[in-house]
Amino acid sequence: MIRLVILLVVLAALAFGIGWLADRPGEIHLAWEGWRVETTVPVALAALAVLTAALMGLWRVLSLLLRSPQMMARHSRRRRRDKGWDAVTRGLLAIGTGDVAAARQARTDAARLLPNEPLTRLLTAQTAQFDGHREAAVAEFHAMAERSETRLLGLRGLHMEARRAGDQRAAAVIAEEAAAAAPALAWAVDAVIEARCAAGDFPGARAVLERQMAQKGIDKTQYRRRRAVLLAAEAVALEHTDPLVARERATEAVRLAPTLVPAAACAGRLLGAAGELKKAAKIVETAFAANPHPELAEVEAHLRPGDAALDRLKRIRVLANKAPSARESAIALARAAIDAQEFKHARLVLEPLLADPSQRVCLLMAELEAAEHADIGKAREWTARAVRANRDPAWIADGVVSDHWAPVSPISGKLDAFVWAVPPGVSATPILEHEAERVKAAIAAVRASEEAKAAALAADAEAQARAQAEAQAQAQAEAQAAQAAEASVVAAAPPPSDTPPAPSAAAAPSAPLVAPAPAKAPDRVVPAALSAPRPDAVAAPVPPVGGEAAGNDAKGEPEPAAGFAAKPAEQAPETAAPPARGDDMDRVVRLPPPGASLGTAFGGPGGAGRAPGARTPRAETIVAMPPLPDDPGPEPDGPEPDGHRPRFLGL
């Protein structure tokens, strides 16, 4: 527009001048060397203009002839340069498309046409990288780093080669050099921050970030986020070694990024341990409302150490109200209810999630079945469903699933790379394994309870059996004592004769005889020195001779053993003199076999006593009895009851 105005102004001025000269034609007279020229002013001016144009044209032709060699050389260089740039372009495109042959040809052409161009060196280095010639690539990058215009490009290439070779230390040194040369250079600053974070130097990483912010190399939002991540990482690292500094770092990180889960969780734990429960609860609830996370629920539940399970359940209810529609709220509430043994409430909370349960929901149901009903079968059924259920979120960075958050990726080293999301193609996550351990513990508790009950029942049965055995042993001991007493009374009787003597009133009282041993037992002679009989000798009562007993025996009816039970015989006084050794020491008593009637026991079948000269049957038990003293002592004064009056039987 301006040029058009200027052109119009010039044309107007020219027209005005021509018109002005036409109005004033004038005359010009020129006389030179006999030549006389007369003309008007306009004609003279026109002739002068033509002459000037002709001279200018002639000068241009002469100048072109004089400068033609230089012009041709410049044209040749221009064509060569154009071909070189075309080769560089073709080479870069070939590398991008993976055409190795085209890249090599383009590198050759570019090196021939543009040997000193930075892009030619870059093409040569990238082609060497593409071919796998690392040494050639490193040499080209070193050459580029030596030149000021390509210094940063060469350092970038050297840094990449060092990381590819796994030399993290060399990569960090190169990045430090590049960041010092250009504090706002993004890749250099990121590499330095990542290297310092990997080494645990979080204050140094923050210093590099501050220099980048001062050089306007990063926007304010990204700066606040990165600083919060670095502060949270430092707080987590110092949580157990320096809680005071860690609390300050975590609080500042929450101020910069209130929804950063690791920062909020760390701040909640440290503030809760310091007794600032309200501030800690506010931080955790704010973060949970934006990003419901199980770690925040865990921190909220254990803000006050040592709280009962019901108190934890109350706090989780308050936290769940901050995000009532979140799935994590229901899971956290169910977890707290199970810990508090509020099984009905836990089942009610999990019921809406059972239509499409995740793996954690299935494991919570398994734990609930085991804890509430001790139903291991249903617990295993829910555990099996967890294998096929939807996956739960986890911390993921570059395809790596981690059980905890980290400031940088373990693969690429990128800052703030971890995100809370559902990992694709992963069947088990660390949080799922943690819940599975809870289910195993619940099932183990059920089994332990059942084993404890079984052990208690077995112990009771064993105690009862032991008591019965002790009672039987005591009864057997008492029976053996009674047998010994009765055997001593029998041994004190006079030796057998053809005619049994009548009972003497002065005879010592005796206890019932020992019960006969089983039939067909061999004869045994036991020395009288043994004070106790063999345990297989069974006590049997001795019925009185004559009277009613004799009548029963005459009828051939056996007497029951229990009907002749009597109290043990009284022991002889300790002051009585021992008998003289002799035949009395070898005296034995032959007891009738069990089941024998009174007549059979003492006189053979059908008789009330043993016939004179009759021999004792072989099926009898022989028990040694110590001799009684000569004088058993005076009889007790006064009559005795018939039921307790001792009877004596002379053998």
Automatic annotation (TrEMBL):
Q: Where is this region: Disordered?
A: 488-509, 535-651
The annotated regions of Pro residues compositional bias extend over 493-503
Where does the record say this protein resides? Membrane
Give me the Gene Ontology terms describing cellular component: membrane
Domain HemY N-terminal, residue spans: 26-129
Compositionally biased, Low complexity: which spans? 535-551, 565-580, 611-621
**What name does UniProt use for this protein?**
Heme biosynthesis protein HemY
- Organism per entry: Xanthobacter tagetidis
